[in-house]
Amino acid sequence: MSDLNDDYSSAGFGRALEWGTAPAVLVIDMVAAYFRPGAELYMGSRDCLDSAARVVAAARAGGVPVIYTRVAYGPDGVDGGLFFKKVGALRHFVAGTGSDLGEIMPEVAPRPDELVIVKQYASAFFGTTLAATLTARGIDTLVICGVSTSGCVRATAVDAISSGYVPIVVRQAVGDRDPRPHEANLFDLQAKYAEVCDEPEVVAKLRR
């Protein structure tokens, strides 16, 4: 790994991004589908959920806005396009099926004054009001928690930096169904698209 780090560093990757002055926390898709044993999308661990709960608590204590996303589709996934066709498990998020797998976990449940954005695709920015909301509130830094590291977290971080927001991915507060894509995507995010920071550092900054 040291050789890989050296190779990327010598090529100019991985330069540091500084936090801005107006962060918000984004909690991506931390819903029952990923944390309920036996569910098709179950990840096998809730460690990232527990970490995200601590990040959310720190944000609230520091007066930092917290924004959530969840996935929901119309009948037959008509608004999910090819993404819905590609990932069969997304059928659990179709409205009207009686499934509660799309409900945000109680450990990180939004308060009545916190925004929940409904999305249909991987990135929290694509086809949603997220960018406009961040701009209107003067947000310049997006602290990212959620699932999955290789999917919606990565897609959102890439769109965040492309849109002019500093993406801070909280290492312990994101998760995937396997450590291999999880670690590979954290490496790549740190090299090219985001700052990957440990929970204690993030919590301390948010509380301040």
Description:
This protein is α/β, with parallel strands linked by helices and 208 residues long. The chain has one domain (22-207): Rossmann fold, CATH 3.40.50. The protein is 38% helix and 18% strand. It has eight helices and six strands, in the order αβααβαβαβαβαβα. The chain has helices at 2-10, 32-35, 47-61, 81-86, 130-136, 149-162, 179-193, 199-207; strands at residues 23-28, 66-71, 115-119, 141-147, 166-175, 195-197. Strands 3-2-1-4-5-6 form a six-stranded parallel sheet, sandwiched between helices. Helix 7 (179-193) links the parallel strand 5 (166-175) and strand 6 (195-197). Helix 3 (47-61) packs parallel to helix 8. It is globular. The mean pLDDT is 96.
Structural class: alpha/beta
Number of strands: 6
CATH topology: Rossmann fold
Number of domains: 1
How much helix is in the residues? 25-40%
| Sheet of most strands | 6 strands, parallel
The rounded distance between the terminal residues' Cα atoms is 34 Å
The overall pLDDT average reads 96
> Which percent band covers the strand fraction?
15-25%
Overall radius of gyration: 17 Å
CATH class call: Alpha Beta
Quick one: CATH superfamily?
A: Isochorismatase-like
Report strand order across the widest sheet.
3-2-1-4-5-6
Describe what is shown at a glance.
The chain has 208 residues and is of the alpha/beta class. The chain has helices at residues 2-10, 32-35, 47-61, 81-86, 130-136, 149-162, 179-193, 199-207, and strands at 23-28, 66-71, 115-119, 141-147, 166-175, 195-197. It is built from eight helices and six strands, in the order αβααβαβαβαβαβα.
